[in-house]
Fold each of these.
Amino acid sequence: MALHHNQPLLITEQLSFRHEEVKNPVFKNVNFSLYPGEAVLLLGPSGCGKSTLAFCLNKLYPEAVDGELNGTISFKGKILDEFRPGEINQHIGIVFQDPESQFCMPTVEEELAFGLENMKTPPEEIESKIDEALELVHLLSFKHALIHTLSGGQKQKLALACVLSLNPDILILDEPTANLDPASSYELTRIIKELKEEQSFSLLIIEHKLDDWIDLTDRCVVLNRDGETLFNGSTADCFNKYAEELTLEGIWLPSAVRAGLLGKKAGIYKGENLPLTDRELIDGFVNPYTALQILDNRKTIHQVSEEPVILSAENLSFHKDGKDLLKNISFSVNKGEFVAIAGSNGSGKTTLSRLLTGLYAPSKGNILFYDRSLSQWKEQELRLKLGYVFQNPEHQFIADSVYEEIAFSLRIQRMTDAEIQKMVEDVLHQVNLLQHADMHPFSLSQGQKRRLSVASMLVNEQDMLLLDEPTFGQDARTSAELMALLETKIHSGGSVVMITHDMEILHSYADKVIVLSEGEKIYEGLPDSLWKEHEIMKMASLKVPYTEKLRNKLDAMDGRNKFALT
Amino acid sequence: MLLHEFNPSIKALTVIVCVLILSLFFDPVTPFLTLVVTAGATFIFGKVSFKRWILLFSPFIFMAIIYIWSALIFSKTIEGETILWTWGIFTLTEEGFQRALSLGMRVLSFTSLSLLFILTTKPTEFLLSLMQQCRLSPKLAYGIMAGYRFLPLMKDEFEIIRSAHRIRGIPKARTLSEKIAELKRYSVPLLAGAIRKAERTAMAMESKGFTGDRNRDFYQKISVSWKDWAYFAFFIGAVLASAYISWLFGFLQLYNGEL
């Protein structure tokens, strides 16, 4: 598929980048090229330098940081250094991960005009270019909207429009869907796919979750943990030959590949190569339905819990600034239960979690924790029993070192230094961070930050842990480690309430799912029955987990076969 | 004809010149008349609701009252002034009363002029105008604009940091000294967060080809026409007319180091 007969657009030779005052380079000796019209997936575990590489490619680095870039990057045969400031950005555009911090103007129209003005587009042509770019991402009706009123998905579409308006040769996407709910993230990938077919740009995609991207990529480049190239070749080869290595590096595999790999190990997948699509996967199984049972990664057996209720929410409502953010929500959490809260971006999930932890007070209704209203608990006592893990681990850090971060809540309880030291070391050992005890929390890698944020909530052995999308933007390894920690928690009798967009986690772990939509509870029950509620799934922008998707596909295929027979 | 349509830089210049002229006089009537004209213009030609205006204006009324009060109580009595009332060490003279009132009115007239500008000008347009008319460096202007976008985010960030501390078992600050300690604890992460955000935004701006080049063609052109100068002339005229009327009634006084 790759159009190698053309001249490459972008070539890097022996590229290495090192932050000042850090001995090891972020990535080293990266040789890679990007051809016109090609879509390349850049893979690697968290912290391997994918984003850094992307920033170097359009000259944002090393200028924005103190660092040293060795090797050469050339675009259309010209070395990057020879471009005037700002010139290369017209040819190589980038969409960043964080929807909040990539705009500098108040409205959609002004933001687009900003980029076009930078490129010295004649003012009389700007309006038509703005409309054109907005049309491409289906945002034309939001032309005069204020950016901060847009949803996360719309902001990412706007970021895409900003780049597209400059008509770039190369488009770099740096985890554009990391902060989006499943449906918005799927929509974004479909828009990009459409655009890819209509326009001639090359794509460099950095992503963790690959399912939605796999059908539009031609080639994969894989970096390992040390920032060295592990693989550079066709997508099919990448997953066929290196699936095991990728897993070891902690890289997410596309669901079909992962299922194929599992099937192969269990001896039920007969295909010669690992499958890239669902169709290939199904064809490779001798008996797809039995295979489904084996693939099903459910870890818990759902049953009605007979354990006592430890937290119950009664008719919760919450309004702020005249808006009803939550309306009349009731549910309960039993001891040892894993409750998942799902819903689209902005449906009130985070607000609900803040209410449940007592950070906000409900406008109406009551929350009972161990039969006592949250407002009657003393702050310190409550925190010893109820932990909360933020969506963004950085938000949670308040101390200067990893050690102090864990010791913080113990110090409030006025424990002796010896006691503190023992407890901190135990917890750090449990989350595998003991060797980093003296580091500043912010200098940890993404995965380590996540583990630290959870660890700081494990130290008091709280009875209940609330987590706000803890797996977002994490690589496969970190995710697995985190879930293992939570499982231990459950086994020791703790309860977990987790907000998540990850349907696989929901499917595998949750005893109960609560679905929110526009501040209302629209579903409460087992995950299995949720997948059958198509209306609710659609309303809450959810997607079914992979095994369920396969089952539906199989059923559809069977139906078609029967139809063909009769 | 709405006040919003005039050139923001000229509007700002108008406010500055009016304030300078008003500072020359020191009597209660001139600033009072100016106050009436500007407030009237804000409601009629600015379509600003009285509720919104008074909400922003009321803190200054409070300030003016305190000014008047303290000027009354602590005024020095000059020989030959008409004494209205004495009680112990306090002496209230007619001239002292007039001085205090002048001071209060001055505060209020400055406020109403500023509000006229603030309530009828979009920040983006003001910055665009400063770049286009006053040659303000785009680096600075777009920096301010990006910062302006951050303001509401800072509030969220503050809320998040407060929550982070609360979930570790630090109770809500109640006394003043607790609140100061809390503020100290919050300031470092708040600042660190702001710097990180700023860095990201700066990178996003650069990725859109922003170099800070002064040579820039604007999509949204902010121009200056005779109407803008008419606006300027009208308000300067209003201030001068206020002074004239005040003089007709014999109130007008030049500022002569009374304070």
Note: Chain A is about 40% helix and 20% strand.
Amino acid sequence: MKRIEILKTYKIYIGGKFPRTESGRYYKVKNKNGELLANMCQCSRKDVRESVVAARKAFGEWNTKSAFNRSQILYRIAEMLESRKAQFTEELQKQGSSKKQAEEEVIKSIECLVYYSGWCDKYQQIFSSVNPVASSHFNFSVPEPTGVVGIIANENAALLGVVYSMAPVIAGGNTCVLLASESKPLCAVSFAEVLHSSDVPGGVINILTGFKKELLEPVASHLDVNALVYYGNNPQEITAIKELAALNVKRIFTYSDVKEESPYNILDVQEIKTTWHPIENIGSSGGGY
Amino acid sequence: MKKTTNTLLPISSPTVDQVGVEERCAKFTSRSIKTETKIQGLKMVLSMIDLTTLEGADTPGKVKQLCYKAMHPHDAVSDLPTTAAVCVYPSMVKVAKKELEGSGVKVAAVSTAFPSGQAPLNVKIADTKFALDQGADEIDMVISRGKFLCGEYQFVFDEIAKIKELCGNIRLKVILETGELGSLDDVRKASDIALYAGADFIKTSTGKISPAATMPVTLVMLEAIKDFYFKTNKMRGMKPAGGISTAKSALHYLVMVKETLGEEWLTNEWFRFGASRLANDVLMQIVKQKTGIYHSVDYFSKD
């Protein structure tokens, strides 16, 4: 007798839980030959709202963890992804990648996590400065996380698009709401399962699936979202994002493709904070800043 | 000491069907409240809030800030109501009273050795007298849960009656601290004792114990108020306090009041929320309804 395959219900990831969309809607994701791969949650603005609330709640805990601990957790995500290489390779193939491409994408994703794991407690030194000022102050600038970041993931890179966009954001102590690729969302949801088993506190990363047309607006206009990173090159979407983001002067970054690993990706969603610390006048001794 | 007039427990409380209560509560959360109705509901919630600060760290400055918030919840939106009252410790009543002068916002003072209620009656009386002398408009007393759990219901009854006698026309809210009572049967029993002993309001919790206000507990207390009304033809108020922090859940409570007691109770004369965080969430939802944009707590005053 032929065994009936047990198919996975792809759900969304909010606040460390896997709910269905509150709207109860779904859309069909098909492969190149038009065969059904999965029914995906078609999220609504209310799911966006729930995710932002979860991300805001998680921000305090994630931001105040030691940089070293964040680094350990990112490394743990890499470990978990490594152990599920086969699953992701298969899922990428289902969505149209060749075996070789799929394997490469998974390995690059794992290495990306290790890369940003290393940067967690190092970017601060690189981007901080002690500034010369013409008064009796010790003046220094340090990067601090922006807060809740909205990420619109790359449409074509099913796994890489998620990992490359998310890793630098959380490495810097931010929390995020990520809209997965509309046509290739399977890996994003499976990646949520990896996150879930990696000591990442619930709410640090929230992953939604659905239509960009519908979800861009609530993410871009939400006043509790502090920055947006958009991967894609649809001029209408970019204009819409920029207009809506102006409401609370969000930081916006738009990239047409997945961005290569770089500590500057962490810096994108950091704010530079400067401190003026009064000191005695030591200029006359020749040793002051 | 003068004997109080109600010396007998006139009541035998009915038992409570816990499963039934929970099912009924689940129904209240499934009502669809949209657009204008929602705005009206949210404003009603705002007008029913007893803005509360009951911390050891309370200072006159903090109380003044809270009073300002009660009078001016969010000046960016016109036509907002004030909150119903501010709720403070007796030592802060004078400060609050001065700040709120002429605004119509009442000052509620917790008393009778809040929050534990573990003090002799003369201390509780002195505590209440002090709050009244300072000018409190409402008194929130706690019952002696220890005595209640020992089965000394008459003691609890007499204590409430005595404090009510002191209060006279000042409205008395009786805090049952349902999180310490154990069962819904006990919640019902304590509600009945409080109502027959002279409480104007019954209130779920101090906010110091978890769980604080929950929907099942509130429903049981509302049912007690309903039965009391049918028996005596007197209206009594209800105040869930603690743990209600979202506008959505506050609306669920309003649905419950309307469907259990009726519209007459949907005013801040008969229904209150004891809360501090709730106010900002309600304001955020009001602004969301008006602008269509999800808001951030960054744009509202902290309290």
Note: Confidence is low (pLDDT under 50) at residues 1-5 of chain B.
